[in-house]
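Can anyone check this?
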Amino acid sequence: MSVETQNKETLGFQTEVKQLLHLMIHSLYSNKEIFLRELISNASDAADKLRFEALAKPELLEGGADLKIRVSFDKDAKTVTLDDNGIGMNREDVITHLGTIAKSGTADFMKHLTGDQKKDSHLIGQFGVGFYSAFIVAEQVEVFSRRAGTSAEEGVYWSSKGEGDFEVANINKAERGTRIVLHLKSGEEEFADGWRLRNIIKKYSDHIALPIELPKEFHGEEKDKPSEAEWETVNRASALWTRPRTEVKDEEYQEFYKHVGHDFENPLAWSHNKVEGKLEYTSLLFVPGRAPFDLYQREAPKGLKLYVQRVFIMDQADEFLPLYLRFIKGVVDSNDLSLNVSREILQKDPVIDSMKSALTKRVLDMLDKLAKDKPEDYKNFWKQFGQVLKEGPAEDFANKEKIAGLLRFASTQDASGEQSVSLADYLGRVKEGQDKVYYLTGESYAQVKNSPHLEVFRKKGIEVLLLTDRIDEWLMSYLTEFDGKQFVDVARGDLDLGKLDTEEDKKAQEEIAKTKEGLVERLKTALGDEVAEVRVSHRLTDSPAILAIGEQDLGLQMRQILEASGQKVPESKPIFEINPAHPLIEKLDAEPDEDRFADLSHILFDQAALAAGDSLKDPAAYVQRLNKLLVELSA
């Protein structure tokens, strides 16, 4: 296609874009037809942006408020063309959006690639690089665009063969919006076919809320473009969320999710709801099946698409859901907000608070239903988003009990180590007389499952939850009880098993403690300032000694998090507990030499620290004492 251009220049692609194009051209997509969905999705976004900007500047519509997308083809020229009359681009926009990718998106994209075509294709939408999918089927891509509100002389032309560079020039373009012309590669001529294009649009883009038109008949070069009468709309062209639930098929919901979620997989669940009465709004919320790469990045885009009376307002309205539900995708369309809504208004409007509360409950109910009806899907959800959901009890006091019911943990009951036990499961298995939920935190499953703290629980057959995510100790500082039962850290304070200990057990413990008072005092003297207290343990059956945490002290996980973030960690000392029945403790009690007694005491103390997953303050001293003992034993 020849075009009269001015101020033509050739520019090089950003380095990462070159790598990306190489991947695209070598068929990163396992399903090539998805290029059309990506380009239509971009055109739909351009129309949404124009509608929004035209709220404040109606003149941007240039007398043409009838927004649409047109897809045409030319079999002889082997081209597919997409036209939209959305917001359009100026020269700077074209260079910025088509020659580079914002921030570190592409570098992150490349880093997350696995080499598996199917898996890698899922990343494309997330990184906003869908435009480049055109190069899967096209040997050359041309773009003709003019931004709404600029003159016809300010049109811009962009062209590239997907290699190292692209051309950009000024052109005359009478209409606002963007035209993309794909010059198909040899072997991709199947896409220059009306029936093929129609099927692709119906399959992937039927939910798009503005008309997508194809020519009824188009005879190659006989006509430059068909007249108005020859175009027909091939999609429903109505906002999917405004239709009754009974009229929307599962496949339509799934395709709509892929559009709003920039995903290639089906969602795990969705909730479509219309609220009428004091508040009037419609919501369509989705639970993704895969976590985005930037889930834990503070500046990552999050939130729902906001529409007011079906007019698009903003892409990431994060005021409608709490941060711990930032993975939820979807749309909210309100009749109770003004069309000129801004982020400042959103943050202050009491209507938003009411909607946020209702939408939050709706998401939690959706997750609860998923857990009950599709446990395997919920297991997948938990693997992807479990740690984010654990932020909930601290952020959302009103729904703390409901969130707690959605949490999953590893436990001593399940040798697989999977986080699959719910609190309801745990309470269904409690021992008679058990009025506590017992748990233990640590760095890894291997470390906690073998912890000496569990010995008395194994002996009595009491289940203990094993918490190994970095967030867990922080979580439990907010999650103090569930269903009336208090949470108890088995490594903290003086363990009291309540009714699970018989009166005979308690009496025997007291008597043993009295017989070891002398040993306890000797240990306090030997260990000095290293311990807060020394006492006889009721937790141990097999190990000689253990370290317990003071009731108000920070645990190991929280100390490590604070240290890693450069914050000052409050000083605390552990409680040293001994197992009076263990042979090593009996030998220690019988040791007459106080210097040797001190060395043995420090060795036991350091071993207890290692068993708890802590690092030694003076590893060299530990090694020296241990070597000294080994020499004595071998003499």
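Reply from J.R.: I decoded it. Residues 102-106, 218-223 have pLDDT under 50 and may be disordered.
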